[in-house]
Amino acid sequence: GLEAWPDTYLALDTETTGFHAQSDYIVDFGHCLVDGGEITSRMTMLIDWAKHPLVDRHHFFSRLRQTKQSMESEGKSYRYTPELLAREGVSPDEAFAFIMGFTRTLLDKGVFFVGHGVDFDEKMLCSMIQRFGYGPGFTLGDRWIDTSCLVKASQVVGNSKMRPTEKDTLRGYWHRVKYARLNGVYHSL
User: Fold this and answer.
1) Strands in 56-161 per DSSP E
2) Furthest C-alpha separation in the chain
3) Strands (E), 47-171
4) 0.90 exceeded by pTM
5) 9-16 and 112-115: which strand pairing?
6) Residue 19 carries which DSSP code?
7) What whole-number distance in Å separates Cα of residue 91 and Cα of residue 12?
8) Residue pair 125/139 in contact by the 8 Å Cβ criterion
9) Phi, psi angles (nearest 5°) of residue 38
10) Strands 26-35 and 9-16
11) What is the pLDDT of residues 41-68, one digit of tens each?
12) How confident is the model at residue 91 (pLDDT cuts 50, 70, 90)?
């Protein structure tokens, strides 16, 4: 369980070519590690899938274009292009060796992971790791805090069904809040 906000945690985020775990790609992995209340590490790592032997370049470039067009039509920006990733991206092999080693070390130390919709990031990381043979999968276990669910839960403080119970795991609580249908309550920034 979680009694108070931890003073050591990893805020993480992924940027992808879309929302489909089996056909989209993570193109950016970012983190900020807070240890004892102090920022001790932060980075963003672009990932270039274009030269990976299992990736259809045409499909990858198409997903980048489609996502850029979709985001821009909604008035949002999407900076990921084949040129940017080729210039600044690392290979998926290098990226996932780092991601898996870094997160495993933090999980072993009992560090919490924080993200806005972190279950999506977890799902995408798991898919990439399995699809490209980097390992059997990926999980943050019960050590994550979902800020999108905090936003949603904070809008219904008086609703007893949205309060954590003694039987809740963190994962179970976040999923219960995420999937609760509540009129006029949103959790998007």
Assistant:
1) 112-115, 144-146
2) 53
3) 112-115, 144-146
4) yes
5) parallel
6) S
7) 20
8) no
9) -115, 140
10) antiparallel
11) 999 999 999 999 999 999 999 999 999 9
12) very high
